[in-house]
């Protein structure tokens, strides 16, 4: 059984790594959001594996998965709202051209 | 046990493979579709781990979310089809390093940590859904309600941000054109 847990955790870790690469390397806002989605997908895999193989009697684990899914939906909604505002103001959602947002 | 490990590994490999394709293809629409397949594979992993409700929820939610993302891709990208072969990346070496270090540290923790006794049997699907419903409307109700209000706030905030700002200059321009 530990084998399945390890397989799931390694998958989650690799998805997290791919997401980190995507979020840091992409210049387009929508592509950066895709990277963040992959990071959260990695977290989801770990959470489900922990619930299933370590604490299937406690449903707080599944509750935590629902919270992370909520974060994914919120990230998409706010991200697209910002993308629309940025596109309307500057005609582009390229982060290379968003230096004026620096504090 | 081995069948479960096999299916979790197969869907895990599919999720990783499509995850890599997201950032490898020059077509942004293909990127959105690859992310959809990657998230669906993650949902299938949940099903293979006997977490039926969350698996179905993940697949349904991601199918909708990624379809919307594909539409936004076409709207906002300079080259959504990838026909121009534009390079849309920066600080590549640093990003690869950060990704490898992040994944490496998580893998080392996964192998070295003492996870304690592992449970072989999971509750059946009907039992899980019932228990999750009781959890949502019982002990975790405040968290559940907070999540709902957060989504509502995000929807209102996203709509408010997306509505064009009507300034005096804009109104004057509009009147001039009319």
From TrEMBL, chain A:
- A Pfam family this chain is assigned to: Oxidored_q2
**Protein location:** Cell membrane; Membrane
Cross-referenced InterPro entries? NADH_UbQ_OxRdtase_chain4L/K, NUOK/Mnh_C1-like
Q: Which residues cross the membrane?
A: 6-24, 31-51, 63-85
Q: Name one GO molecular function term.
A: NADH dehydrogenase (quinone) (non-electrogenic) activity
Which terms in the GO cellular component ontology are assigned?
Answer: NADH dehydrogenase complex; plasma membrane
Name the source's superkingdom. Answer: Bacteria
Q: Which UniProt keywords apply?
A: Cell membrane, Membrane, NAD, Oxidoreductase, Quinone, Translocase, Transmembrane, Transmembrane helix, Transport, Ubiquinone
Q: Which residues form a coiled coil?
A: none
Report the principal subcellular site. membrane
One record GO biological process: ATP synthesis coupled electron transport
Task: Note the topology in the membrane.
Answer: Multi-pass membrane protein
Q: What is its EC number?
A: 7.1.1.-
Q: Reaction catalysed by this chain? A: a quinone + NADH + 5 H(+)(in) = a quinol + NAD(+) + 4 H(+)(out)
Q: What is this protein's function per UniProt?
A: NDH-1 shuttles electrons from NADH, via FMN and iron-sulfur (Fe-S) centers, to quinones in the respiratory chain. The immediate electron acceptor for the enzyme in this species is believed to be ubiquinone. Couples the redox reaction to proton translocation (for every two electrons transferred, four hydrogen ions are translocated across the cytoplasmic membrane), and thus conserves the redox energy in a proton gradient.
Family affiliation: Belongs to the complex I subunit 4L family.
Quaternary state and interactors? NDH-1 is composed of 14 different subunits. Subunits NuoA, H, J, K, L, M, N constitute the membrane sector of the complex.
Q: What is this protein called?
A: NADH-quinone oxidoreductase subunit K
Name its species.
Answer: Marinobacter flavimaris
Gene coding for it: nuoK
From TrEMBL, chain B:
Tell whether Cell membrane is among the UniProt keywords: yes
Q: Where in the cell is it found?
A: Cell membrane
Membrane topology per the entry is: Multi-pass membrane protein
- EC number of this enzyme: 7.1.1.-
In which broad location class does this protein mainly occur, judging by the first location in its UniProt entry? membrane
What is a single molecular function from GO for this protein?
quinone binding
Give the domain of life: Bacteria
| Segments passing through the bilayer | 6-25, 32-49, 55-74, 94-113, 142-165
Q: Which UniProt keywords apply?
A: Cell membrane, Membrane, NAD, Quinone, Transmembrane, Transmembrane helix
**Pfam families per record:** Oxidored_q3 (PF00499)
Q: Return the InterPro entries for the record.
A: NADH_UbQ/plastoQ_OxRdtase_su6, Nuo/plastoQ_OxRdtase_6_NuoJ
Mind naming one GO cellular-component term on file for this protein?
Answer: plasma membrane
* Catalytic reaction list: a quinone + NADH + 5 H(+)(in) = a quinol + NAD(+) + 4 H(+)(out)
- Give a yes or no for keyword Secreted in this entry: no
Q: Which residues form a coiled coil?
A: none
Family that this chain belongs to: Belongs to the complex I subunit 6 family.
Q: How does it assemble?
A: Composed of 13 different subunits. Subunits NuoA, H, J, K, L, M, N constitute the membrane sector of the complex.
Protein name per the record? NADH-quinone oxidoreductase subunit J
Ranked from the top, the taxonomy reads: Bacteria, Pseudomonadati, Pseudomonadota, Gammaproteobacteria, Pseudomonadales
